[in-house]
Amino acid sequence: MTALASQSASQPEAPAEAPALPAAGSSFYTAMRLLPAEQRDAMYAVYAFCRAVDDVADDGGAREVRAAELDRWRADIDALYAGRPVPRTQALVGPVRQFGLRREDFQAVIDGMAMDAEADIVAPDSATLDLYCDRVASAVGRLSVRIFGLAEEPGIRLAHHLGRALQLTNILRDIDEDAERGRLYLPAEPLAAIGLTRPTPESALAHPRLAEVCARLLDEAQAHYDAAWAIMNREPRRATKAPRIMGAAYHLILVGLRKRGWAAPRTRVKPGKLALVGVLLRHAIV
Fold first, then answer.
1. In sequence order, what are the beta bridge partners of 122?
2. d(Cα 218, Cα 41) in Å, to the nearest integer?
3. What is the pLDDT of residues 166-179, one digit of tens each?
4. Which residue has the higher pLDDT, 19 or 57?
5. Which of 6, 145, 148, 224 stands 20 to 30 A from 193 (CA)?
6. What is the pLDDT of residue 273?
7. Taking a C-beta distance cutoff of 8 angstroms, is the pair 141, 47 a contact?
8. Positions of the region Disordered (predicted)?
9. How far apart are alpha carbons 272 and 253 in whole angstroms?
10. What burial letters (b/e) apply to 194-213, b meaning 16+ CB within 10 Å?
11. Cβ(161)–Cβ(222) under 8 Å?
């Protein structure tokens, strides 16, 4: 997306709003609750930012309105790093300073949301899908690993792999909900291999060989989980506790999707409470 005109200094600032918090009982909420207070508060601030720009991309009105609001977020992040935070970025001031969060990662998240806002994504090629995953998931991971305290090099690699693993899991879990929005994140190449060279969400989800396409993405997600676990197993458990919980909880979804299959009607896969308790018992205690 080409950035639109930046917010001018003469525009009035929007009133500060209470930051969004993750849903109580979610795997993210549980993982973050186990962090020390400063890390937890920093993650909640990052979450609130991600939630705000995601809401713009999905439910922010007409496309030109969404684009303009995302551009205002770009300007607000620039102002934050210039030492002029506006009310809605005030909660990020401390985390940016304390944990060295990088401006380009916040901007990458906005770039990812802009991909959804400017047009409904339908069967992107694999390179575009990977770029999307990097922006909406791995960029969040790059912010997160600095808060968790991982060293730079393994932290960046973990963000790369775990971010993609989680996002591909989301894509596979949400194919029906995304289709209702006119979106299809399954990549173009495997769809073309089953004869869909100009797919629509409806034609892809109704295709008798849909399972072949989803199986390829399942395997790709699994490879990223495997790479993420290899990294986490070499790093201090205290610094990897939260991503371990997130990775293990989301992997339960991937396993459930593989077991359920892709024949319609597809029931939504959600890990059971006992399975999530097992994740906590394995990974929450350092």
1. 184
2. 33
3. 999 999 999 999 99
4. 57
5. 224
6. 87
7. no
8. 1-20
9. 10
10. bebeebebeebbebeebeeb
11. no
| 6 pLDDT above the threshold of 70 | no
Q: Which pLDDT does position 9 carry in this prediction? A: 32
Separation of alpha carbons 253 and 261, rounded Å: 12
Residue located via tokens 């937890």: 40
Instruction: Provide the pLDDT for residue 16.
Output: 40
Alpha carbon distance 26, 196 (integer Å) = 36
| pTM of the full structure | 0.89
List Cα–Cα distances, 78 to 75, 86, 144, in angstroms: 5, 10, 20
CA distance linking residue 181 with residue 120, whole number of Å: 8
- Under a CB-based contact definition with an 8 Å cutoff, are residues 133 and 163 in contact? yes
Helices (DSSP H) in 174-209: which residue ranges?
175-180, 188-193, 201-206
250's tokens:
């989301």
Domain 27-284 adopts which CATH fold? Answer: Farnesyl Diphosphate Synthase (1.10.600)
27: its two tokens: 């795997």
Q: What are 197-255's pLDDT values in tens digits?
A: 999 999 999 999 999 999 999 999 999 999 999 999 999 999 999 999 999 999 999 99
Could you report the per-residue pLDDT of 65-103, keeping only the tens digit for each? 999 999 999 999 999 999 999 999 999 999 999 999 999
Q: CB–CB of 262/226 below 8 Å?
A: no
In percent, the amount of the chain with pLDDT more than 70 equals 90
- Comparing CA positions, the residue from 211, 204, 205, 216 lying closest to residue 168 is 216
Residues 6 or more apart whose CB falls under 8 angstroms from that of 160 comprise 134, 138, 141
Which sequence spans correspond to the domains of the chain?
A: 27-284
Distance of CA 158 to the CA centre of its chain: 14
